[in-house]
Specification:
alpha/beta, GH, Immunoglobulin-like, 3 domains, 17 helices, eight-stranded parallel β-barrel, about 650 residues, eight-stranded mixed β-sheet, Chitobiase, domain 2, EC 3.2.1.52, Beta_hexosaminidase_sua/sub, glycosidase, 27 strands, TIM Barrel
């Protein structure tokens, strides 16, 4: 490239660091009218910038000085962040671009970025070292497993038998997976060696697997139980053929009885910050099912992108699904010189929902309100913007225009229209409404919001947040849906105790919600966020605003282990969820690296009883599971 950008740390204080940015013109040409755009993960103090001016929208910084940048010359500038000291290369420049104006117009020219110079020596990355695999390597650890004599030979002639409607979806999933192993298509027939047998005496989600030399029997009473049983059988299949001439895989003969510890076991995937294609989403869902998760939380809207087709408002995907240097939404994070985006059509969403259901997974859509709504607001300003609103605020992601206005009639038309189409698309009983990170000072100088507060007798703007969330909850209830929300959904004290609260800032907030009468799903960033770095080296991908989350730390997460919750309070934990936020996850390789193998550790935390979990034993079983990930070519952290 003709241009290069270097970032160096030049001064470090506990809560503020100063940086030097050097832009090199390596070309043979002078540039006259130009702006430098670059992305950073923190807020730049405007008054701290030397040698020019800087404006920031989200992660995008736009710097200009008015002076030319001559050939083989450089520009030096400094700025400060009010943040703890950086410890990782991923906290440097995400991408950079020069916007150069000539007589022919404006061109977006990519700029090479180098690793941030942190000025400190980095520890070496710790490799994943594991013991030899066990003979049987099931994850999560089942409740009871007995190894018996003999083996079952899985050959090309095998067939799957389903004896009830409850087992039909799981039987089809099993047949599809077996077809990928064998040289012939496996189908669901009336006779075969692998039987899915309904046993109404088993509790919901419980299952039994019996592998004998003559065949395999999976017993359960409901669809969830059959899905779990199929997942176990799939894990019993070795990665290599045992008898190549007969294309046979030999499974050990076992008797397994099993059931989950928590009823809700989930992963959230952020597809708004970076768009993930349908194939990537479906592959992840298949892995979630294999490790006995039963929900997939799909984060579909945010400031940086609207990813779901809404027929009533085509602008949401025509405008809000795309960002770039010449788009309504400015570029963010990566790809500053070109367009980035995408969205899921309704047909694609129905396909994903059906694919997940076949594997025993309920898809939960998230439409994040009232904050994190910039993509929607920029798409529908005629409906969602009050011209007289002079409120001045800045969100944690550095936006000043990303919150819905509860005082506008258009806001409720927008919400009800969008949620009605969402409810039609997703047959599951839950819709997640977000509710997180509404900034201070929003709505304070909005005439319509102040009028609403006066009419309702509200004294705190947080009550406006509760007002709009209660409206969403009431509307969703008319569609037969239960509302989920992040822990800030309780702000303003307006939503009912029927709303399930997802605790993410810390476990303490989960305890407070429980003691205020809410059921909770635990998703503490300190243990379950897969975008957190897995190691302490500066080279390790990820972030660390919550903390570093190595594999062992994720595995040892135990809800409320260090608190005084009572047994009755503990019962209000509906489950555990992990999450991958994708500000810096934009490729298949990085996607896999951040998820695996920590996903398997959290799967066991969600499923297996506390007294059954053993770190040394898990490592041996993980060693066996990595052979399967190798077979698929998954780029897990090694």
């Amino acid at each position: 490239m003709n241009f290069r950008l270097d970032l160096n740390v030049i001064d470090v204080q506990p809560n503020e660091s100063r940086f030097a940015l050097v832009l090199h013109n390596l070309s043979e040409y002078n540039i006259e009218n130009w702006q430098l755009t670059f992305s950073v993960s923190r807020y730049v103090i405007p008054t701290s910038v030397s040698h020019g001016t800087l404006k920031q929208v989200g992660s995008l910084c736009v710097f200009e000085t008015g002076a030319p940048l001559n050939a083989n010359d450089h520009l030096y500038l400094e700025f400060s962040h009010t943040t703890k000291p950086f410890t990782m290369h991923d906290e440097g420049i995400g991408d950079a671009c020069l916007m150069i104006t000539t007589d022919q117009g404006i061109t977006a020219t990519p700029v090479e970025t180098t690793l941030i110079n942190l000025g400190v020596q980095s520890p070496e990355r710790t490799p994943l070292t594991l013991p030899e695999p066990k003979a049987i390597n099931l994850i999560p650890q089942p409740k009871a497993l007995v190894v018996t004599q003999g083996q079952f030979a899985l050959t090309d002639e095998c067939a799957v038998v389903s004896d009830s409607d409850a087992s039909q979806l799981a039987a089809t999933w099993l047949a599809q997976e077996l077809s990928a192993h064998l040289r012939s298509d496996v189908t669901v027939k009336k006779n075969g060696e692998i039987r899915l047998k309904q046993d109404t005496k088993l509790a919901p989600s419980h299952y039994r697997v019996s592998v004998k030399p003559q065949g395999i029997t999976i017993s359960a009473s409901d669809e969830c139980g059959f899905s779990h049983g199929v997942a176990t059988v799939l894990q019993l299949i070795p990665t290599q053929v045992s008898h190549r001439h007969h294309a046979a895989y030999t499974l050990p003969c076992v008797e397994i009885e099993d059931h989950p510890r928590f009823g809700y076991r989930s992963m959230m995937l952020d597809c708004a910050r970076h768009f993930h294609p349908v194939r990537r989403v479906k592959d992840l869902i298949n892995q979630l099912a294999r490790y006995k998760f039963n929900h997939f939380h799909w984060h579909l809207t945010d400031d940086e992108g609207w990813r779901i087709q809404i027929d009533a408002f085509p602008e949401l995907t025509e405008i809000g699904a795309w960002r770039g240097p010449f788009e309504t939404l400015e570029p963010q994070y990566t790809s500053l010189s070109k367009i980035h985006g995408g969205f899921y059509t309704k047909d694609e969403i129905r396909d994903v929902v059906a694919y997940a259901a076949q594997r025993g997974i309920t898809v939960i859509p998230e439409i994040d309100i009232p904050g994190h709504c910039r993509a929607a607001i920029k798409s529908l300003p005629h409906m969602l913007v009050e011209d007289a609103d002079a409120s001045a605020y800045r969100s944690i992601q550095n936006y000043t225009d990303n919150v819905l206005n509860p005082g506008l009639k258009g806001t409720y038309t927008f919400l009800e229209t969008v949620l009605a189409e969402v409810c039609e698309l997703f047959p599951g009983p839950f819709v997640h409404i977000g509710a997180d990170e509404v900034p201070e000072n929003v709505w304070t100088d909005s005439p319509s919001c102040q009028a609403l507060m006066k009419a309702c007798g509200y004294t705190d703007t947080k009550e406006l947040q509760g007002h709009i969330l209660r409206h969403a909850e009431n509307f969703l209830s008319t569609k037969g849906k239960q509302m989920f929300g992040w822990e800030e959904a309780v702000f303003g004290d307006k939503v009912s105790k029927d709303t399930v609260i997802f605790s993410w800032v810390s476990e303490q907030s989960g305890i407070e919600c429980i003691r205020n009468g809410y059921n909770v799903v635990l998703q503490p960033g300190q243990e379950t966020y897969l975008d957190m770095a897995q190691d302490f080296s500066t080279d390790e991908p990820g972030t660390d605003w919550a903390c570093k989350v190595p594999l062992e730390k994720a595995y040892h997460y135990e809800p409320f282990a260090n608190s005084d919750v009572t047994p009755s309070e503990f019962e209000k934990i509906k489950g555990i969820q992990c999450a991958l936020w994708c500000e810096v996850t934009n490729t298949q390789s990085r996607f896999e690296y951040m998820i695996f193998p920590r996903l398997l550790a959290i799967a066991e935390v969600c499923w297996s009883a506390k007294e059954q979990r053993d770190w040394a034993d898990f490592q041996a079983r993980l060693s066996g599971q990595l052979q399967y990930l190798d077979r698929l070519g998954i780029n897990y952290r090694r």
